[in-house]
Amino acid sequence: MELKDLDSKERLVLVAALRFTVFSDGKVSREEAGQLDEVVAALGEDSYRKTIDEAEDEIRDVRAFDQAVAGVTRPEAQELIYEWTLKTAISDSIRESENRILDRLATAWNIKVEEVRGEESKDGSS
Fold it and tell me: In whole angstroms, what separates CA 67 from the centre of its chain?
């Protein structure tokens, strides 16, 4: 599965997770910007902009985020969203606030964090 294969609910969660991750420290690093550029390219600029607007309107806090996350039920989409959120978080270094978003996703979707983070290490991403 690729980012372009995500449905609208899944894209919304992806963009919200990335937004919370990237802006957790109040600034966007060069590495994080590079990750976002890849997401924009995969989703298409118009689709990304529409989704980011929706995320800003609909997912303003952790409670709304958790509700949106619960609506993503396809395991392949869950894994892809988690992997992209992780990849973005580790692109410069994982902060506690970023870790909390990753933990929320992993808990909601029963993702085995050690396995996913181990795969990221094998790919040379960490």
Answer: 15
Pair 98, 21: CB distance under 8 Å: yes
Q: How many residues does the chain have?
A: 126
Token couple for 124: 């040379």
Report yes or no: 3 and 47 within 8 Å, Cβ to Cβ.
no
Q: Quick one: residue 124, left, alpha or beta (phi over 0 = left, psi -120 to 50 = alpha)?
A: left
Global pTM reads 0.86
The structural domain count of the chain equals: 1
SS3 65: helix
* Lookup result for tokens 């993702």: 111
Full residue range of the structural domain in which residue 34 is found? 3-122
**Amino acid at residue number 72:** V
pLDDT in tens, 108-119: 999 987 655 555
CATH assignment at residue 88: 1.10.3680.10
